[in-house]
Specification:
Keywords: Oxidoreductase. This protein is of the alpha/beta class. The chain has helices at about 10-20, 35-45, 60-65, 85-90, 100-115, 120-125, 155-165, 180-185, 195-200, 220-225, 245-250, 290-310, and strands spanning about 1-5, 20-25, 50, 70-75, 90-95, 150, 170-175, 190, 205, 230-235, 255-260, 280.
Amino acid sequence: MEKILVTRRIPEKFKQRLELMGEVEMWDHHLTPMPREAFLEAAVDKTILLVTLSENIDRTLLEQAPHLKIIANMAVGYDNIDLVEAEQRNVVISNTPHVLSETTAELGFALMMAASRRLSEAIDYVQDGKWESWGPYLLAGKDIYRSKVGIYGMGEIGRAFARRLKGFNADILYHNRSRNTKAEHELGAFYTSFETLVRESDFIVCTAPSTQETRNKFNKDVFKMMRNDAIFVNIGRGDIVVEEDLVEALQSGEIAGCALDVVRDEPIRMDHPLLTLPNAIVTPHIGSATVLTRDQMIQTCVLNIEDVVQGKPARNQVLAK
């Protein structure tokens, strides 16, 4: 029988599926991550881990848990895992691709719309008792219709985002590690250099993963290249942005606004300058947060675990490059 550790509370129906394979220990908290020391201690005798991005899967963890067969990561990204170390120890790593692309793109679109029409500012304006009369340019925003939207990262989420733009008659620019001819033919997207994308776009939407190439990509020089009325949206990873440079760009008027579902250090500290700026929207990494999608993510983790327990390759195995 397997020994299984689940590092966040999951619905009982999925826990019962896991219990068919062995003994399940679950951290019974929905929002609070498992403390590092408790995680290391609990993992010692486990053969299976079902984890989130909050858990750091490094050499220390893998050394302390010599019986591991699979670590199922409840995310598409896996920058919390040392893939090389896991592969050397014959530990299978799996993720949850495909199931959250549409939901994450939907949240990104909502953020772009909120930033473009200054919804956060407008809500505060009313709640603070400032709304005394109508004015022709009161909280005037920026049209998405017939705008130019630049997508940095034309993977599944980028393509899902681009599909939503079709109804707005927007011009879609994109920059990616390689050209995506399918997106060009189906969505009318135009491949451009990164510099052209940031210089010409009304909205710049980052959907890219965290890699050596993308980390710190959006920095002071890039924000200076953007239009003064540009809005930056990030639903990729927080470390793609140099936040000090973004704050400076927002304060100085280099760009008009931003909307972020990810930040460099999560959860964001309450004294972070971004939280003081009226033209910055920050949400708590809820890109995939619908009930259906979260169920599908856990279901995918369970299926990957079942594959390995049955002696088959995990259907969503991630390999070191």
